[in-house]
Amino acid sequence: MCFLYGLTAMSPRLVAAADIETLLMPGKVIQGHARFESECSKCHLRFRKGTQSRLCLDCHEAIAADVESGQGFHGGLPDIATRACKDCHSEHLGRDADIVQLDPIDFDHARTDFGLEGAHRQAPCAACHEKGKPWAKAPTACNDCHGNRDPHRGNLGKTCDNCHTAERWDRFRFDHEDTDFPLHGTHRKVRCSGCHANERYEGTPDRCVACHAINDVHAGANGAKCESCHNEKRWDQSDFDHDRETDFPLRGKHRKARCESCHHAPVQEHKPGGDCLSCHRNDDAHNGDYGRRCESCHSEQGWSQTCFDHAKQTDFALTGRHRKLACGACHQGRLDQENLSTDCVSCHLDDDAHGEQEGRDCARCHRTDDWRARVVFDHDLTRFPLLGLHATVTCEECHSTATFRDAPLRCVQCHREDDDHRGTLGPACDRCHNPNAWTAWQFDHDRQTDFRLDGAHADLRCADCHASPVTDRPDTPSDCQSCHRNDDIHQGRFGRDCARCHTTERFSDVHIN
User: What is the residue range of 325's domain?
Assistant: First the structure.
């Protein structure tokens, strides 16, 4: 009654605008339909409920087209022709109501025209569906999403899926065999940009020299038909048969030599000589002292491999490391003018790290196999036999230089940093410690000194009395006053012999006879 009264109390214009259907509306429509809220006939016809879905599709033309063609999400729904829009999309639930009710987590993308395959399965929804735009408006062509990352810059068109797959962007199914230049050998592993610079595909040259001119070590001297010698398996593999087509068969290391090693000038203009020195004059470490017949000692298997038998043809057999020495290491002049000595020092005087402290007969300790390995030396015959843990340390821990006789002999000279006493007990570490272990020590203060440790003195640390470093044996005073001057409440009036009255158990214990 109050409601009707209020209605009749309105102005005539308001009463005329009011619609009974609007007044009886069950609730607010969503924000997207808000502009039609006062026009019920946009979505409803009086007394004709079956027309509501038709009215929905009249506005939502894209969805109507999908339903009509059987495409898109709505077009693929079962029984879509007999279903009403309101079965899934209610209204009058308020401005902020979600009447679409699409759950991105449970949504089956396979029911759309764009099923998710490969890497698309892991892509977040927002990567394709721009916020604020209808879900169905998401692009479906590769170039729509990936155009800004197209390394071909559009030169291969926009149908990326002609070559690439959805599994991985760098996997493609393009078959170069379908072109006029099938890829063979190493060409199969070359990146596209290796031949198609700046994404140029039309008119790409197919002659070897067009791409490999910069790699032509012949600098064009052998012509432009690279394939007459080279193949596509490897640039440095040649099909040219030097043994059959020339007078100089390639043997040993010559088989691996580059053409330019011997052919310094164009082949058509210059033919290198066939003797060793014509190519190896600069390699002759003997500077001509051994003549021109290099092959009398050397072979084609390797310049450093010789067929000269030093043991049979000289008085000095080459053993150990001497086998690997270059001739010039010992023979530094003409052979017919040399008079080499065969003792070690004649060659190794500068290598004697001992400064001749160990004499001139190096072979007493060293071998020709290795100057440092398997040295025959008995340290127990020296002034410092190796006992305890000293037997396990490396030579370098005590011998910082090869002048071994200069090594220190006193403990403190090596173990100064290990001296927890900081020199307060003197340098003779072996009075307490032994070589078996630094912590394995034994010292009897009562027996080895003139000061017996009893009473409270028994629990003292060494540093409590021995506070100052000494250069020899400790010379700490043994009278009470030396340590307890600050504890003497008598201020020296009773002398320095506190033991006449006090005991070592406790300073406060007093006995007076």
Answer: 250-255+274-333
